[in-house]
């Protein structure tokens, strides 16, 4: 009884404040509440409300003992003492369970997303390892190419030097061939001259020797 008196006094103090039409109330933790078509128990009962039902307050009676409410598509009146501006434990528990379910679903979704991210991260790491391996392979190939290029440059330089030396040797060879031809011509001319001289000497000897033999015979006589 004292509890009921305390509740009524608390409600009466609450009535001194102004309420907007957007105010929300809840059925107290009772078994069943009657919703009437008017602000007295003499009006017909429209429906019964259960503990935790949400009520949209439309207006209040002049004495503040009744609330005109709208709930679940119906409009009617209930006694103010059965309404409270704060959700009851059952409603709070239900809301908490709903929040818990939502959080569980979000947690499951986040875990799934985390698993996807971890799988993607693993794939990225694998790809990174593959790219690093390819980079090292390309680096080694580049080093080999640089060595080959350096060797090729050295070979090209050696080949160019060899060509230059070959050209110089060809020039010297041509010069020697020309000199050899000149020497051959000189030797030929000398041979011809000596041949002519030998022929002349032979002719002279041929002419001279018989005369000398004749003169010798005459002297002997």
Please, how many helices? Answer: 2
Mean pLDDT, to the nearest integer, reads: 78
CATH architecture of the domain at 2-87: Roll
Alpha-carbon Rg, integer = 67 Å
* Distance between the first and last residues' Cα: 210 Å
Structural class: alpha+beta
Q: What is the makeup of the main sheet?
A: 5 strands, antiparallel
Spell out the helices and strands N to C: HEEEEEEEH
CATH level-1 class of the domain at 2-87? Mainly Beta
Shape summary: rod-shaped
Oligomer: single chain
Content of β-strand: 15-25%
How is the largest sheet built, in terms of strand order? 6-5-4-1-7
Query: CATH superfamily of the domain at 2-87, called what?
Result: SH3 Domains
Low-confidence stretches: 16-20
Helical content stands at 55-70%
Classify the fold: give the CATH topology of the domain at 2-87: SH3 type barrels
Give an overview of the whole structure.
By secondary structure, the protein is α+β, with helices and mostly antiparallel strands. It has a domain at 2-87: SH3 Domains (SH3 type barrels), CATH 2.30.30.40. The protein has helices at 2-14, 89-220, and strands spanning 24-27, 32-36, 45-50, 54-60, 66-71, 74-79, 83-84. The strands form two sheets. It has a five-stranded antiparallel beta sheet, with no helix packed on it. It has a two-stranded antiparallel ribbon with strand order 2-3. A hairpin with a 5-residue loop joins β4 and β5 (66-71). The longest helix has 132 residues, at 89-220. The chain starts with a helix and ends with a helix. Mean pLDDT is 78; it is low at 16-20.
């Amino acid at each position: 009884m004292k509890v009921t008196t305390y509740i009524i006094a608390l409600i009466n103090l609450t009535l001194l404040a102004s309420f907007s039409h957007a105010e929300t109330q809840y059925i107290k933790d009772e078994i069943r509440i009657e919703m009437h078509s008017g602000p007295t128990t003499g009006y017909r009962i429209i429906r019964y409300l259960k503990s935790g039902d949400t009520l949209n307050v439309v207006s209040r009676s002049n004495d503040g003992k009744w609330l005109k409410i709208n709930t679940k598509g119906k409009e009617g009146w209930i006694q103010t003492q059965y309404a409270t501006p704060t959700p009851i434990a059952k409603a709070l528990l239900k809301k908490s369970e709903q929040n818990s379910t939502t959080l569980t679903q979000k947690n499951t979704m986040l875990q799934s997303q985390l698993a996807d991210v971890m799988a993607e991260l693993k794939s990225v790491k694998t790809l990174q390892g593959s790219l690093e391996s390819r980079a090292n392979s390309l680096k080694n190939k580049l080093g080999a190419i640089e060595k080959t290029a350096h060797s090729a440059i050295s070979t090209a330089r050696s080949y160019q030097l060899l060509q230059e030396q070959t050209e110089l040797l060809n020039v010297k060879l041509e010069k020697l061939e020309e000199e050899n031809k000149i020497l051959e011509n000189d030797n030929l001319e000398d041979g011809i001259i000596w041949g002519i001289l030998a022929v002349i000497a032979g002719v002279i000897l041929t002419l001279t020797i018989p005369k000398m033999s004749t003169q010798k015979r005459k002297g002997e006589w």
